[in-house]
Amino acid sequence: MAHLGVLGTKTQSSAASSVAITLTAGAAVGSTVLVGIIWEAGGGTGVATISAVADSRSNTWSTTPDVTAGGTSNSTVAGAVLRARLTTALQVGDTITVTVSGGTRSRWCLQADAFDDVDTSPLDQTQTTGNTAPSGTSLSTGSTATTAQAHELVYAIYGFGSGRTVTIPAGWTGGAKVETSAGSSDRALQVAWQYVNATGAQQGTLTLSSSSTYTAAVATYKYTPADPPELRISQVKLLAPNPGDAPLLHIAQVKLTVPQAVIGEVRISQVKLKAPAKSGQPPYSGIKAARDGNVWDATIQTPEAT
Known about the structure:
By secondary structure, the chain is mainly beta. Helix content is 0%, strand content 45%.
C-alpha cells in the first residue's frame, strides 16, 4: 500500500469561480488522485456546486464529490473530496482545475494526493460533521458505518480558521496545513489519511491549538493489499562439526514449497553434502535417495566411527 505523495496544493485568497492546482509531482496511469477542497461559506451558502473538474491530460473526473461537509446552517466553511483514476499519467507542471457555478468563493484551499493501491470502484463509507458550525479544539469527522471489507484507505479533510497549529493523531499521516493569506476571514485545510486492515466504523480526528468553528468529512476507499515480496535465498551453508566435536549432525526436515498460484518448478542448482570422517580418512559423500510417491527422501551415509 502506498501514498505516492502530495501532487500539489493551491490557495485562492480572493473571489473566484475557478481555481487550478499546478502539480509539483506526477502520478502514473492506474493511480487514484483524491482532491480535498474547502471554501468559505459566508451567509450560509454551504457547499459550492461543482460544475467542472478537469486536468491537463483529459482524465475523467466526476463533478459529484465523494463526500461533502458544511450545509447551509454552517456560515463559516464547507468542503468536498473529488476523485479520479488516471488513464493518462499526470506530469509535473500539469494542472487540476475545479470550477463552481452559482457565484464565487472568496477563500479556497485545495490539495491533491495520489495513491497506487486503491481499487477501481473503491468508495465505501462516508461521514460528515460541521453542517451546524461546530466549534472547539478537538475536531471530528463523525463515525462512518461499518466498512465493507478489512483493507481500506481512510481519507479525511478538515476546514477551519487559519493561524492555528494542528496535531494529527497517531496512526494518521498528513501533509502540511494549507491556508489562505488575505489577512481577514482566512480559511485553512488539513488533509489526513490512514490505512486500516479490519472492518469497523472509521472516524477522523484533529486537534487545534485554539478553538475554531470547523467542518470535517471522511471517506473510506477499498484497496487490495500487495502480495508479500518473494523470498529468495541464493546460498545456504550447512556446517557439520569436526569429528570428535560431536557424534553426528542431524537435519530433521527441509521443506521447499511452491505457491499453487505460481506455475513452475523448484530448481536447486547446486547442493554439496560433505560428511566429515575420522581423522586420517577421506570425507564420505555417499547419498541414499528413496522415492515415496512424489516425495524424495535423501540421507547422508557417513562411515562408522572406530
